Amino acid sequence: MAKGHSVYRCTECGAEHSKWAGKCDGCGAWNTLVEEAVGRTTGPARGRKGVLPASPPVRLSEIAAGRTPTRWRTGIAELDFVVGGGIVPGSLILIGGEPGIGKSTLLLQCAARLEAAGVPVLYAAGEESVEQIQLRAARLTEDAGRVQVLPEVRLDAITAQASASGTRVLIVDSIQTTYTDELEGAPGNVGQVRECAARLMRFAKETGTAVLLIGHVTRTGGIAGPKTLEHIVDTVLYFEGESSSDFRILRCVKNRFGSVDEVGIFQMTASGLTPVANPSQTFLAGRDSGISGSAVTPLLEGSRPVLVEIQALAAKSGFGTPQRVATGLDHRRLAVLLAVLERRAGLRFSDLDVFVNVTSGMRLVEPASDLAVVAALCSSLKDRAVPPDAVFLGEVGLGGEIRPVAATERRLSEAERLGFRQAFVPARGKLSTSIATIPVAHVADLARRLAA
Ligand code: TYD
Ligand code: MG
Fold first, then answer.
1. How far apart are the CA of 103 and the centre of ligand 1, in A?
2. How far is the C-alpha of 258 from the C-alpha of 85, rounded, in Å?
C-alpha cells in the first residue's frame, strides 16, 4: 500500500498546514496543530465516480429483530452491568485510568473469562513483555492460559493478526504505545492516538470484532489521553480509585449501547479484582459510629444507591494559612460549604485546619452529599458524634438552605436495609418512606439539632 503523507490540522480553526508549527497561521492559537494522515486509507472519497458503498442502505423497519446485536457476557458481573449487559460485537470500548490502577488486570481477567466462554480473544501487549503478563496471569483466580498474547505495537500488524486468527475480542494495551507509521509523530502523541483509535474503530465496525482499548490518564487529565478519544469511541469507561484504598470503581461516562453513569465496584486482592456485591455493607464495615466527625450518606451511583462514610477533622492550625485537604470530593465544594457554615450558621472554621475524607475511595460528585459533609464538619467542630443510626441527604445552597435531591426514597430504602433508623432530609418535598425522617430547612437548623 502506498504510504500516505501527513498534514497538520489546527484543532481550533481546522486550518491545514503542510508542516508542524507552534502557532497556527489561521487563527493564531498556540500548540493546536495535530498530525493527520492523508492517504489512500484515510482520505475521504469526495463523491468519486464508481465508488459504491459496501452495502446498500436499509430501512430501519426492515431490519429483523434478530439483527440487533447480541452481547458477549464476560461473567464479571460488575463489568457486564456497567457496559449495559455485556460487550457488543463491533464496538470500541475505551478503558481509561491512572497507571497502576488495574486496567491490565481487569482486561486480562475479562480475556480469560471470554476464552473460557468460547469467544476468541487477542491481547496485544505494547506495555509489557509476555513474561510479565504471564506473571500477572499466574496471580489470577481465572485461568488465562488460553488467552493469546501478541507483543506488538504496530497497529496494522495487530489488526492483521486479529483478522488472521479469527479474533472476536481484541484487547489493545495501550493506545499510548500503539502507532501507525503513516504518521511521523512518536507513539502517544495526540495525532497518533487519534489516528490509531479511528483505525481501530473502522476495524471494529468492518469485522464485527469488539475492541477494548486501554488508555492512561494522568491525575490532571493528561495530554493525548483518553479525553481526546471520547468522541471517537462507542463506550468510555473510567477505572478509578484512591491509591490508599483497595476499592476500584469502574464508571461508564459514555455508552452508545446502554445507559451511562452506571458504576461497577471492585476490590483489588492478591488474586486480581473481585466484584463487590454489597458495596454499602463493605464500605461501612470499618466504621466506628461513636467518633465525632463521621457522617453517612447514600450516594446514587448510576441507578444504584451506595452508602459511604464521610469523615471530617477540624483541628487548631499550627501556623500560617489554615489547610483545607479534601480527599474524594472537590476542594472548591469544601470551601463553599465551609463558607456557608461560617456565614449562615456562625460556625468558625477560619483559624482551623480542615480535613475531609470519603472512606472507601468513592468520590462525591453530586451535591446531594452536601448535608453529610456539613454534618461531619459540625460534628468535628463540636466534638460530638452524630446519632449512630442516622444518614444525611440534601444539597446545601449558598443561603444555607437545604434543598431536595433526586431519588430520595430509593436512597433511603438502601439506608434502611443496612440498619439505619433515621434520616436527616430537606424540609421541602413529601416523602413516602418507612425510615424516620428529620426535616432540616437550614444549616443552622442542622447545627442546632446536632448540638442538642
Ligand atoms: P495493573 O493492571 O498493571 O494496572 P494498570 O494496567 O492500570 O497500569 O495493576 C497494577 C497494580 O495492581 C499493581 O500495583 C499490582 C496490583 N495487583 C494486585 O494487587 N493483585 C493482583 O492480583 C494483580 C494482578 C495486580
Ligand atoms: Mg497496564
1. 8
2. 8
**pLDDT at residue number 73:** 92
> Ligand 2 centroid to 225 CA: how many Å?
14
**Domain boundary at 258, 277, 296, which?**
277
Protein residue with its CA nearest to atom 16 in ligand 1: 102
pLDDT at 47: 54
Q: Which residues in the chain land under pLDDT 50? A: 1-2, 40-45, 223
Q: What are the DSSP E strand ranges found in 241-399?
A: 247-255, 263-269, 272-275, 294-301, 304-316, 324-327, 352-358, 390-392, 395-396
Residue 168 sits in the same domain as residue 190: yes
Distance between terminal CA atoms of the chain?
79
Instruction: Report which protein residue has its CA nearest ligand 1's atom 11.
Output: 100
Question: How many angstroms is it from 136 CA to the middle of ligand 2?
Answer: 10
Say whether both 147 and 192 belong to one domain.
yes
pLDDT at residue 221, rounded to an integer: 55
Residues 252, 126: one domain? yes
Instruction: Name which residue sits closest to atom 10 of ligand 1, judged by CA.
Output: 100
Residues 335, 188: one domain?
Answer: no
- Looking at the fold, whether 177 and 323 belong to one and the same domain comes out as no
